[in-house]
Amino acid sequence: MSKINICGILFDNVTMDQAISAMEEKIKNHKNNESSGFLFVANQDIINRMQKIKELTLDGLNEAFLTIPDGYSIVYAAKFLKTPLKERVTGPDLMEKFMELSNSKSYKHFFLGAKEGVGQKLKDNFLAKYPQIKIVGVYSPPFCDEFSIEENQKIIDMINNSNTDVLWVSFGCPKQEKWILQNKDKIKTPISVGIGAAFDFHSGNLKRAPKWVQNLRMEWFYRFLQEPKRLWKRYFVGGFNFLTLLLKEKKYNRSRGV
């Protein structure tokens, strides 16, 4: 798969079907006691945040076996830099598609994070749609900036003992990415993915934008209207910051004759 560089993050230029195939290949080839493979669901927010968070290094983030463009701002950025991506591959859609596939292929899943009760709703909703899927763990740890050593080990043991194929993590950005990078060598599941709001959407805790809003490429505004106090800075201040980064990268590329 070819890579597209946007602000230092190497995005895989894949369709949804190709992303699903990459996940299957990762599960198939995973060896016992091998470190977990990081699947990076990347958008402009994480690119903005990595500028200020020392744990989110380019080297660490680019170790991902698969990096998908979660937002249209990434798709637009790729076009602006004259390295277009095939399509947007969102975290919630990837989760839905892989759950559907798991109904016939018996892949195992562990849901980690979100508010108390959300994970169970998520499990119930997916089982109602796909009765044959195997959900081998659901855990909502205490809300905090950083887990105690004891709590962190408890979480890792739960995951490893579950023998899951995919660990879905919803701590919010950037905590979920930081946690996965810090612990992926201890986690033995084939795939670990930070999936953020997908837990809320698929559990029914939050309503996702209708398809016609998504097709208008206004899903971000729909989300902003749901949680304006939390998201105004991410979308408006963050949008300006992301544009600034892109202009700098465009200028740098021109200086190199790219």
Explain what this protein looks like in three dimensions:
- With 258 residues, the protein is an alpha/beta fold.
- The chain has one domain (3-23, 32-207, 215-253).
- Helices cover 50% and strands 15% of the residues.
- The strands form two sheets. A six-stranded parallel β-sheet has the order 4-3-8-7-5-6, sandwiched between helices. A two-stranded antiparallel ribbon has the order 1-2.
- It is globular and about 50 Å long.
- 36% of the residues are buried.
- The model has no long low-confidence stretch (mean pLDDT 92).
Mean pLDDT: 92
Q: Strand order of the main beta sheet, please?
A: 4-3-8-7-5-6
Shape type: globular
The ordered string of helix (H) and strand (E) elements is EEHEHHEHHEHEHEHEHHHH
Query: What proportion strand?
Result: 15-25%
What value does the Rg take, in angstroms? 18 Å
Catalogue the unreliable spans.
none
Helix fraction, binned, reads 40-55%
Beta-strand segment tally: 8
Per DSSP, the total helix count is 12
Main sheet? Answer: 6 strands, parallel
Instruction: Give the total of domains.
Output: 1
- The N- to C-terminal Cα distance equals 21 Å
Question: Structural class, please?
Answer: alpha/beta
Question: Keywords for this structure?
Answer:
alpha/beta; 8 strands; 6-stranded parallel beta sheet; two-stranded antiparallel ribbon; about 260 residues
